[in-house]
Amino acid sequence: MSVATNSVHKQMVQTQDDINPQDNPKAHQKNSQEASQKTSQNAGSSVTDSTNLIQRMAVIVVGVLVAFILMTWGVHAMQMSDPYIRNVLALTGDAARGHDIFQLNCAVCHGLEAAGEVGPDLHGVSDRKSQVALIQQVISGKTPPMPQFQPNAKDMADLLDYLETL
């Protein structure tokens, strides 16, 4: 066979192998191996994609938690920078004196026993609000009809101590 004829014969055999691989065991084995490698690569790619997605989700969750913690800390730090609040919290309150202050300034709206009238029931208020939040509530007047009221630091400390007894 001449070189040109041999080359044409190889091309024909190769073309036949590609067209009908079941008739040629070598071609069938080659195609099976290629398909197996592609399936294996696709499975590996799927696992890698899942792992990347989980890692991204974890980074997002950690980022949100860090942002929340920083915001909470920032708000607390800002509240504690108020000299009036710092002074009140540095003092030791007297609940009996706080009761007297409550009767004079708060009982008209909150009731003699702090059970609520125009203003809400204050029993358990120290469980629902921090001391800083209670101080801000009293001094801000931001919740009508409650008036703005800023007692001296000792009176506020006494009032806080009384509210903790409710």
CATH architecture of the largest domain: Orthogonal Bundle
Helix count, per DSSP? 8
The span between the termini is 111 Å
Largest sheet: none
Number of beta strands: 0
- The run of helices and strands is HHHHHHHH
Q: Beta-strand level of the residues, as a percent range?
A: under 5%
Given the C-alpha coordinates, what overall shape results? elongated
Q: Would you tell me the overall average pLDDT?
A: 79
Uncertain residue ranges: none
> Could you please say which CATH topology of the largest domain applies here?
Cytochrome Bc1 Complex, Chain D, domain 2
Structural class: mainly alpha
CATH fourth-tier homologous superfamily of the largest domain: Cytochrome c-like domain
Helix content: over 70%
- What is the CATH class designation of the largest domain? Mainly Alpha
Number of domains: 2
What is the CA-atom radius of gyration, in angstroms? 39 Å
